[in-house]
Amino acid sequence: MRVRVKLCGVTNVDDALMAAAMGVDALGFIFAASPRRITPEAGVEIIRALPPFVKTVGVFVDEDVVEITRIARFCGLDMVQLHGQETPEVCARLMPRSIKAFQVKDRASLDSLQHYRGRVRGVLLDAWANGRRGGIGEPFDWRLLEDFPMPGPLILAGGLGPENVREAVMAVHPYSIDINSGVESRPGRKDPARLQAVIQAITAVPRTDGEIA
Question: 211 in a domain, yes or no?
Fold first, then answer.
């Protein structure tokens, strides 16, 4: 099975259409404090321009469930990605749309994941950042994930770009990768050459059966 690609921090129609044309599977729109934050109105404009079969994901941090649901319906989001202190019960209320993000500092950072089994569609793992809910644009130690039973499909984030994405995929074997700052020319603007390089690197990763992904 090939590794999916989610491009997060999309802020404009041009980048969204470029990513879709390159074969990106999902686009992430940030509705929380971030240099890449957009309004729901801007999200609707981008999403309406997309071709079919490109998934859309809204990113939230400790937002009220009612407001998340409102924005998801307004924008037509397929999934919601939760980066705060959202409990398993909150995630369950948002099923089947919910993805829960966790910051990985050490092996103990993974202890709470099992409480989310059956409450989320997938888990996103990012690098730990003191006082921040988003990533720091750097990878965490992927060895921490060895032999760890994930409560759902794994979405790997954290400083992924053309320089290291092949190594990451071969080391972790995630369901999907999540890329953002690693393929930008500046915050909120995606670099076509870097995005294409990531996709090419993933495509070239050999499968365990010896085939090319």
Answer: no
How sure is the predictor about 89, in pLDDT bands with cuts at 50, 70 and 90? Answer: very high
Which range of residues forms the domain containing residue 18? Answer: 4-203
> What is the model's pLDDT at position 209?
47
What are the backbone dihedrals phi and psi of residue 28, each rounded to the nearest 5 degrees, phi first?
Answer: -105, 135
Active site residues: 8, 126
The Cα 154–Cα 160 span in angstroms is 15
Can you read off the two tokens belonging to residue 183? 């393929």
Nearest to 46 by CA among 9, 72, 17: 17
For residue 126, give the CATH number of its domain.
Answer: 3.20.20.70
Task: Quickly tell me which residue has 């759902």 as its tokens.
Answer: 152
CA angle 46, 52, 53 (to 5 degrees): 105
* CA distances for 211 relative to 171, 203, 205, angstroms: 17, 11, 9
pTM (global) more than 0.70: yes
Which H or E run includes 187? none
Position 78, amino acid: D
